[in-house]
Amino acid sequence: MEVVQEGPFKVVGLKVVARWEELWREMPRAWEEFIARHGAVVHRLEPAFVDVSLGKSGDLYVQVVGSRVHAFEDVPPGMVALEIPAQRYVRYRHAGPVEGIALSFGRMYAWAKDNGLEADEFKLDVGYTAGGAEQEHELFVRVKP
């Protein structure tokens, strides 16, 4: 694990707003729809997709599943455009099945605390693919200034 400074970037994708107990159902639905429609997203930067966890609004979690893009032109209907500013993160490369990603995020939060850093709820998970056979994900947890 390490602390990194990432530059700003843009994401186009599907927004998911759900209670914690609903995420297990809503996130796979959103991924299925996004993967089916990802060809409509122009200006994609990489083949891997990203899950952006924006945090909570009351008791609702807000996430966007999508692709990094270099421009917001022609955003497909029903999708959102999201600009992520430059910020600092704890970064970790998760190797293994997606079922272990939550545990890796937990380790990242513990590592941040052990190193005197305050991490918040904003997270990035980069590495999903259309075929679903990915074995590595770049995980990021935002560090408060």
Automatic annotation (TrEMBL):
<protein>
    <submittedName>
        <fullName>Integron-associated effector binding protein</fullName>
    </submittedName>
</protein>
<feature type="domain" description="AraC effector-binding">
    <location>
        <begin position="1"/>
        <end position="144"/>
    </location>
</feature>
<dbReference type="InterPro" id="IPR029441">
    <property type="entry name" value="Cass2"/>
</dbReference>
<dbReference type="Pfam" id="PF14526">
    <property type="entry name" value="Cass2"/>
</dbReference>
<dbReference type="InterPro" id="IPR011256">
    <property type="entry name" value="Reg_factor_effector_dom_sf"/>
</dbReference>
<dbReference type="InterPro" id="IPR010499">
    <property type="entry name" value="AraC_E-bd"/>
</dbReference>
